[in-house]
Amino acid sequence: xxxxxxxxxxxxxxxxxxxxxxDRELLKKEYLDAGILDSLQVIELITxxxxxxxxxxxxxxxxxxxxxTCEGIGQLIEKQIGEKS
Amino acid sequence: MIIPxxxxxxxxxxxxxxxxxxxxxxxxxxxxxxxxxxxxxxVLRIMEMISEGLGTEEIKNKITDVxxxxxxxxxxxxxxxxxxxxxxxxxxxxxxxxPKNPDxxxxxxxxxxxxxxxxxxxxxxxxxxxxxxxxxxxxxxxxHQQLGQALLVDKRENPGEWWVKQKFKPDYSDLxxxxxxxxxxxxxxxxxKTRFGPSHTVIDIGCGTGFYTKQMAESGATVMGIDxxxxxxxxxxxxxxxxxxxxxxxxxxxxxxxxxxxxxxxxADFVFMSDALLFYFVSPNPKEQSDINVLFSDIRRIxxxxxxxxxxxxxxIYWLRPWLGEIDRPFTVMTEHTKRWxxxxxNFSQLVNxxxxxxxxxxxxxxxxPDETVPNIDARATQFAKEFPLWWFFELQPRKE
Lengths: 85, 401
What we know:
The complex is a heterodimer. Chain A is mostly helical.
């Protein structure tokens, strides 16, 4: 697993608390539909990821299908980092 | 492509654009989604063609020489205050953004995005439902959800801090110049003065920053404010006039069984709650739904037999209804009463039945209107609230078995 996704998962797990689910499955899990995070935790996730990667998610990012899974979030972040470098 | 019958068109007069050119403008307002745009006559002509069933290519062939103007005049007004104009229209043409001059394809995209035309009726009907998450933009969601999304996602603001800011002046000494002041505060100030006296014990449940609690204490009554939020209580204790001896604040959870067991039975002449019961009907956090009967049973227990429970709540019919029409001749549009997906305050029968089931007799009920002597209140707000009350008040007594 690449570095970005590992870091996304780490932050996700810190916020979600104890989760009985393996990394590979969690990456693809639609966490909003599954109700894993409540509203405030979703906001915490956004803020922490933005801090961690020094980026800012746009409204389009937050509304996109990609933002519904950790794997997709990783892709959105990689895209932003790629554009910066 | 259809035009929903949910749209009302209003005259905005003429708008001066760049080179002093005056353009007649019309607002298109979708009463369900509360989207609004202003457009010029040529846009209305195109909408007429859509309503006649013409498709994009036919419209393009028919219209060759057009100048289209679209102003985005939507504003999430409740961000600036819970009691602000819920219509969400940027009314003053002086504050309008620069217009867009789209071509026909772009215009149709704007009209679709703002729900002035519908491509998929099933999808459109499905929008009027709760949001599945705070990031969900496909469903309109109820008012709590819309506000939460605006605050947390769009503005990244802490809702607790925001609430204080929209209600109070920065030093907490007074309410902001809005309907809180001219309706709620004005009524309560004179009510506390006439109803409470030094022999009374009053408990303010959900006292927040203690603004009204302090007003109650001015009557000489022994007053205790209770709130689960320690930040709010910090403000209550630190700000305003130094707390007199007859006033105390206490941190306590409210609403779950046992939360208020520490208050002795049959000791209060009055229990007061304002703008709080609505959260028992539609919770901002569905995972933390509290049972109103637990609260009511606590209040009944705390009150003396002749004691009164005073409840001041947002009006369940008119609060959050759009403020339409001329300032002096307001009207509103009701889009729901029974099947509610947007409203968060209980309607009349829900609230009254909750009181009855909760063991209370209604001793008095009032709808509250603005005190027009309070200065600096928006004229449209006052005129609307004079016709359509925005709070209701109940005095309740524990029913004698």
